[in-house]
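Good day; I would like, with your permission, to put a structural problem before you. A protein sequence and the structure tokens that stand for its backbone fold form the material at issue. The record follows directly beneath this note:
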Amino acid sequence: MSGASGSTGSSNEPPGDRVASPAQRAVLSVCVLVVVAGSPIDQCLDALAAPGAKPVASEVVVVANGAPERVVERLRRRQDVVVVESPVNLGFAAGCNLAATVATGELLVFLNDDSVVEPDCLATLVAALQGDPGLAAVGPRILSPDGTVQEAGSVLWRDGSTAHVASGSPDRRDVAGEARDVDAISANGLLVTRSAFEAVGGFDEDFYPAYYEDVDLCLALAERGYRVGYEPRARLVHTGSTSSTEPFRRFLLERNRGILCARWGGALERFPPRPRPDRGRSRDRAVTRALARGAGRRRDRARGEEHDGARAEVARRGGAPVVDRGAQAQRAEERRAALEVEYLAFLERRWVEDADRLSALQTYVATRPVLRVKRALARLAGRS
């Protein structure tokens, strides 16, 4: 681990062993994961290092989450970050949890490596959180490189799916320009108090390797009576991930939404059903209106026991949490192996379903009188 300014860490210390005195602890810790070789992490970190980009007494913790050695070497040369190295990709949730245990701040920001914060983004998020004691977490306005809105908070539907508010719309003062409570916010740019984050056990690592862990976190916060907000004056630009194929992404979204629904079925009943079709004015009205909020039902006892076990695994040393990183890496490898089996089954199922749909379509076309006439006329035209 390489030390940031004010850090007591050195490259020879295990990352979890860093102990900071109260005078050295940050107020705000920005946590970033790096996985792939082509990561634009330098742009992300350069934006964070710009004058005024971070509040005073801030630190940046970067987890090299199974990243190639050349990426890790580049990170080690930076003097403005704390680098935590994991030889395997722990997944987004576990990687963020690891970053949080190394971070010293009482406020945690989780940021994608392909995002660039605009000036005052972090300070604005901190001000929004500290100005409203009922908020436990708040997220920024996320923009695409072309200037359109990617997300202004999210609406959660009864089936566990989400809709990004104002997605694809021009960046103007409409629904995207209003600070408000939201059902969920993306983990990209998410600011959360450490006390609330630890109260719910952090991100749930069952959502390996990614997707829906942020929705799960927001539901867990709401369950404990915390509020989640959106702050439009805080802005960041997100390029968007290209690290996975579209079929694998669809598989993960389907799989992890199933995990979310199994876990939060009762609590999801308070949300409206997803509009059908998922477009047009009915969807727009549903996205923009304020949804009923309040604490959801308690999760099943097994989930609570899992989190109790996870918290018991976290030891305290000098006020800084440490984790058994060997056990964490082993769990990630086990999840990866199981995921490969699930993905293969998903592809086989989709192949069968696609073949069945094609067969059904061919049968339907063959039985339609108008289509039979059109095909006959086409054959006659071809003979003339």
Notes: The two ends are 78 Å apart (CA to CA). The chain has one domain: 15-347. DSSP finds eleven helices and 14 strands in the chain. The domain at 15-347 is CATH 3.90.550.10 (Spore Coat Polysaccharide Biosynthesis Protein SpsA; Chain A).
